[in-house]
Amino acid sequence: MGHGGGGAMSGELVEHVFLPAFADDDLARLADSAVLPLLGGRVAFSTDSFVVRPLFFPGGSIGDLAVNGTVNDLAMSGAEPLFLSAAFILEEGTDVTKVGAVAQRLGEAAERAGVRVVTGDTKVVETGHGDGVYVNTAGVGVVPEGVDLRPDRARPGDVVIVSGDIGVHGVAIMSVREGLQFGAEVESDCQPLHRLVSAMLDVTRDLHVLRDPTRGGVATALNEIARASGVGVEVVERSLPIPEVVANACAFLGLDPLQVANEGKLLAFVDRDHADEVLAAMRAHPAGAGSAVIGECVEAHPGMVAATTGFGASRVVDLPLGEQLPRIC
Fold first, then answer.
1. Where does the record place the PurM-like C-terminal domain (predicted)?
2. Distance CA 319, CA 136 (A)
3. Which member of 67, 81, 167, 275 lies 3.0 to 4.6 Å from 74 by CB, making a disulfide possible if both were Cys?
4. Structural domains in the chain?
């Protein structure tokens, strides 16, 4: 299970098993989607699989995740998502009405995001060899001219912005799965982000890096970008938008909010000259109303992420080893 958590064990699996097996330069960039030349332009292409438990949770469902997760991976390359595939792996004995509800939610999410589900597949496995419904989606989108968003483009002096409250999705899943109460209902932040990205690109096409901090949370995303770009990243803990209910839940469960998954937030690495305008554009959009500057890129400690605590001390923000909250997407 640790190899599926988005942390250090996941990175080792990708580095030592998959990258050597496939040996492709575009794949080796380890971006959220591959940007490829096609017919004189560029397309982004991404795929993702969804195994969340439970299938329905406050603020979303596996159907919503299947659309928004892939749409957001395309958006992190600056692409306008156009088409999706949807493949369902069903466990024998699963109630068909439940499958229908998942499919309905997936279709509604696609309509809200403005993408078309144009191909798909269905497989059924024996009882005990699945968990009701798994979904795989692949997506294709078009990348505008002049956009070059890659994990290795962060530079010293870049401002790091997050588009809103973090840790909400992971806590929402845990609360309903384990029947825990944290003083208020927590709803997942599951939502599409491509329109927010479009508003940011209207300010400047020269955004450096975008990343949606899903599995492994903000900590994993920042570490991956720091290592890919060879820069240090410094964040200020007091600037992190962590809702009180998430902070309380993480304290109760012994979790670091920086390592808890999100499904409707993005991290942006932006040149300081454009940071104020980009931040204003993000805050003017419903998906980025809670956007905040949380840190910057520095020349010191390249490849590492550090956080300034509320007491003025500094701590290393490392990759989680394995999976804190399994099956959250």
1. 155-300
2. 26
3. 81
4. 36-142 (3.30.1330.10), 151-316 (3.90.650.10)
22-68: pLDDT as tens digits: 888 888 888 888 888 886 789 999 999 999 999 999 999 999 999 99
CA–CA distance, 295 with 306 (Å, rounded to integer)? 10
Rounded CA separation 310/239 (Å): 10
Nearest to 188 by CA among 170, 176, 175: 170
User: Any idea how long the chain is?
Assistant: 329
In the block, tokens 């770009």 appear at 229
* pLDDT mean over 156-169: 98
DSSP 54-74: SSEETTEEHHHHHHHHHHHHH
- pTM equals 0.90
- Give 114-154 pLDDT, tens digit per residue: 999 999 989 999 999 989 999 999 999 999 999 999 999 99
Rounded Cα gap, residues 237 and 230, in angstroms: 22
At 212, the amino acid letter reads D
Residue that the structure tokens 């892939």 belong to:
70
CA distance 36 to 41: 8
Which two tokens mark 246?
């998430």
Q: Is the dihedral of CA 266, 271, 272, 276 positive or negative?
A: negative
For β-strands 34-38 and 209-211, DSSP reports them as unpaired
Helix 62-75 to helix 96-113 angle (10° resolution) is 30
Distance from the first to the final alpha carbon of the chain? 13
Give the 3-state secondary structure of residue 277. Answer: helix
- The alpha carbon dihedral of 33, 224, 113, 60 has a sign of positive
Query: CA-based angle 175:256:294, to the nearest 5?
Result: 115
Cα dihedral 325, 74, 148, 288 sign: negative
